[in-house]
Amino acid sequence: MDYQDDTTPALAALQTSNRYSAERTKRLRPEGDSQFIDISLSTKHASFLDDPWVSTAAPVKTARSQFPTNRCEVLILGAGFGGLLYAVRMIEAGVRPEDIRIVERAGGFGGTWYWNRYPGLSCDIESYCYLPLLEETGYVPRQRYSSGEEIREYAELVARKWGVADSAVFQTKAEELVWDEGAKEWEVELVQQRKGEQAETLRVRAPFVATVNGVLSWPKLPGVPGLLDYEGEVFHSSRWDYGITGGSPEDPSLTKLEGKRVAIVGTGATAVQIVPHLARWAKHLYVVQRTPAAVDQRDQRETDPEWFHKEVATSAGWQRERLKNFHQHFTTEKQPPINLVDDQWTSAVGMVAIAGNAAGPKTMEELPAYMQKLHTLDLPRQSRIRKRVEDVVSDPTTAKQLQAWYPTWCKRPAFHDEYLPTFNRPNVTLVDTDGAGLDHLTKDSIATTTESYPVDILIFATGFRAPFTGSPAQKANTSILGRAGVSMHDKWASEGPSTLHGALDANFPNLFLSGPWQASNSPNYLFNVDALAKHSAYILAQAKRKAGGRPFAVAPTAAAAQDWGMQVLMRSPPMAALAGCTPSYFNVEGGIDGAPPEAQMLMARSGLWGHGIEDFMGVVEGWRGEGGMRGVEVRI
């Protein structure tokens, strides 16, 4: 029942909200995020992190050969698009490409697009917005939603165009960063683990470091009893094994699945793309669902180059204007008169709850009325998506189980035209666990509390470590020690960050951050990263001018950082709309709701700019326009 016949939209929204609460309660688990296994922290599950692509990549240079003098000017941690954007913006600010080194534990550029190469992979953000630097490269995306392979190839194109293709130090991880106040530089311990060789440790120095480690870096597994007892083929979707399935990233013909019983665990945005391909080839496919995805239509299409140049790339600054228009649709107030992107994201008004909203509540007392408004605005969309399931899926029971009972903002929306029809195939079974997840595994089966299913191949599409918690040090599994030896992990855990604009922390000079803490957010995450990359490059260039060629430390003053934290806190009420959501990585599996008041206050001060990305951009661009770097100190 969708309550569509109720007398008022507000009443319908209230009744639906009650249903949402009931479904959320079924999925809450007392262990919260600890129900998952963080593979990077578990030696027993380390094999799930093996790099399946490094043998096909170009030969990886030794870290020692990349640091002939054990130094570089700018050290960037991460070779995904974030790391590339920091390199590009630093180059634009005057840093020579040869003075940059990009440290990356993978064997190539791309970040999440390096690791994830599963069949059906594409971006869910329109490519004309998502792929950065399109205006600068003149590149025309092949499709409205670029494939993973195209995106990875584009990352390599960017690296070549800006002269940093040879600056990468692959298969290498920064284990420790220590600030040297006297020398005004960072000492960094690097460990390179090339395939088939002994690990090599190298200590290097760099005056400036940027931490750009991404938000989907460390895959996780469900803590299901018997996981290591399973004797069939098994892997995580972020380390797809085409040796088991057949096919390749370029040709997803999964011929080795013929005659095989396959189970995929998870029904989030990743599984939505994979499931149709598995179903085409497997003898039988079991889709294990804890919480259904809200799957809207995608409307994929090829890019007509003539149309692109006539309707999209129309004038200088076109991509920034397109992104601004995209962001302007995430508001509870009047939408812009023209929708340049015109996709299902721009109809998902409820995403303001995570994107931030300048028209949102100014105090926590205004939050209940705001929540009612959000539910009223969101109900038509979610009702339409639930109705879409009924229209597409033939079996009424399966259709009911595939309906998502939570508001749009509680989980990342999914978009696909083939996922739902897949459940009409006779060789596909939805294993709905009603929020509980799998009960256990045996040597040859998956099992719920009531039934067992023998399977030959088991695939975990169970996502990644919660991306918006912890410090940059935790996100990178790295120790970062700043002024007076202060540990970033400990400092942020007890007091939160002390940044200005989310770009620099007062306790960690010359260390440029990439958000989202004390910065902002967009569904197109690369826009956030690029905004901070430009901001960081500006600060570095201005600090160099002030220093006049002498070594220096640049960081916000303690007073400026404290003031910025208060500004973030004052704008935090709109972000409280995430309270009461169904468990997901957005709310750390419900753990945020259960935090004590003092922890809630710390999270609000440490979190996102609650008035939205364009409001944030206005603040930081206005600050740069003033000149003088108000609140930033350059110590010689």
Automatic annotation (TrEMBL):
Keywords: FAD, Flavoprotein, NADP, Oxidoreductase. The keyword Flavoprotein applies. It comes from the Eukaryota. One of its GO terms (molecular function) is oxidoreductase activity. Pfam families: NAD_binding_8. InterPro entries: FAD-binding_Monooxygenases, FAD/NAD-bd_sf. Its cofactor is FAD. Belongs to the FAD-binding monooxygenase family. This is FAD/NAD(P)-binding domain-containing protein.
